[in-house]
Amino acid sequence: MTDTRNRPPRDSYLVFGAPYIGEEERAEVLACLDSGWIGSGPRASQLEREFSAYVGAKHAVALNSATAALFLALKSLKLSPGAEVIAPSMTFCATVNAIVHAGFKPVLVDCDRDTMNMDPAALRGALTPKTEAVLPVHFAGRPCEMKDIMTIVDEKKLALVEDCAHAVESTYEGKHCGTFGDFGAFSFYVTKNMSTAEGGMLISRKADDGDALRCKALHGLSKDAWNRFSDEGYVHYAVHEPGFKFNLTDLAASLGLHQLRRLDRAHAYREKLWTFYMRELADLPLTLPAPIPDNMRHAYHLFTCCVDDTKTRIRRDDVITGLHRLNIGSGVHYIPVHAHPYYRETLAVSDENLPNASYIGERTFSIPLSMAVTQEDAADVVAALRRVFQ
User: Quick one: which of 69, 91, 316, 337 has the most CB atoms within 10 Å?
Assistant: First the structure.
């Protein structure tokens, strides 16, 4: 890559999380439009089959978001009304919002400061007689310590839903994230490693869950409802339960099919960017992502940096503003859930209760990392960070 120390500022803005859209996606979208079927149909079904094969799941149900997947998973567990579900505070609010909307009580626990993932010791310390489920998040694409978490889950006979919004390629000891628990929820949002603009996938380890989940996801209609307007003739539908409107469209699946098929190539490219960032940013006052153990495959979804305030007076928000002025987009992942007004008031959790999440939430920012980021773009990111800290 080009030397980063004397690069001129960028002329154009580098958007954080911009997706890579290839010619295959463009052609598939046009073919979908020309087919006359853009709602949930054959392409969504094909995406389900290919995704379940990729992660090794019994079933995959294509939905309009990972939030819907989390909600549907929690509702399908048939937990007791008001049951406690343990989740990390270091996550996007959707993780915990889904618990609330499903009718359960979120219990927030701290993360490990290095990995930013749920701390198994904190999980064990949060258990009560009302605990019925655990919802770990594979943060930034780094798998949680599933051996430790599964020990607790099995010992206490708890349900497990994995939030894999960042972790479509992630594996732990050779097994895909999302396949350890009862359910795994994946995100295909525009900034994710695999994107359908908006969308998600719910996978289940039970062989008989597929049709029931699809029924719930589409108003509670019978499984063949999507083809009731097809050229095979009209099919009457039946409502089996009051379901939801969570289905993924074929138009969205048109993007996802080729994003999925490109996953491993895109992963290898992001790994190169990751290695470049780790080398070029090592001398700046930043805490970079923790080393990755051999028993894990990191999805390389987010490259998170924490400002080391023992080495600089510059604060995280100053860094974000400085990057923006130099035409570099960045993100914050995340302000911890307990710091948001609603959850601070309703859960009565303070920063002192969750010191690691609070520490990270005040210092973290993420830099562009996707197949849409060129090597020249990455060099511009490094050069901009150098200017900010100078």
Answer: 69
Structurally, the chain folds into a number of domains equal to 2
pLDDT given at position 48:
97
Question: How confident is the model over 338-353, as pLDDT tens digits?
Answer: 999 999 999 999 999 9
In a domain, 56, yes or no: yes
Give the end of a domain, one of 218, 238, 261: 261
How is the beta sheet containing 286-287 ordered, strand by strand? 286-287, 303-307, 364-367
In this structure, the number of other CB atoms found within 10 A of the CB of residue 164 comes to: 32
CA 101 to CA 95: how far, in whole Å? 10
**Terminal-to-terminal C-alpha distance of the chain:** 22
252 shares a domain with 113: yes
Instruction: Mark whether 50 and 174 lie in a shared domain.
Output: yes
**Same domain flag for 87 and 168:** yes
CB neighbours of residue 228 within 10 Å:
14
- SS3 for 158-194 is CEEEEECCCCCCCEECCEECCCCCCEEEEECCCCCCC
Q: Are residues 257 and 271 in the same domain?
A: no
| Integer angstrom CA distances of residue 102 from 83, 105, 107 | 10, 9, 14
Give every strand in the sheet of 131-134, ordered side by side: 59-63, 200-204, 183-187, 159-163, 131-134, 84-88, 105-109
Band of pLDDT at residue 211, cut at 50, 70 and 90: confident
Q: Is residue 384 part of a domain?
A: yes
The boundaries of the domain holding residue 36 are: 23-261
Residue 233, sorted as left (phi over 0), alpha (psi -120 to 50) or beta, turns out to be: left
Contact 175, 297 (CB under 8 A): no
Strands 303-307 and 364-367: antiparallel
Say which of 58, 78, 192, 311 is annotated catalytic.
Answer: 192
274 and 223 in a single domain? The answer is no
Which residues are bridge partners to 131 per DSSP? 84
Question: CA 302 to CA 282: how far, in whole Å?
Answer: 17
What's the token pair of residue 155?
Answer: 């010992």
**4 lies in a domain?**
no
192 is catalytic: yes
- Residues contacting residue 237 through CB under 8 Å, at least 6 positions apart: 221, 222, 224, 225, 228
Condensed to tens digits (0 to 9), the pLDDT of residues 219-235 reads: 988 765 555 555 566 66
Q: What CATH number should be reported for the domain holding residue 167?
A: 3.40.640.10
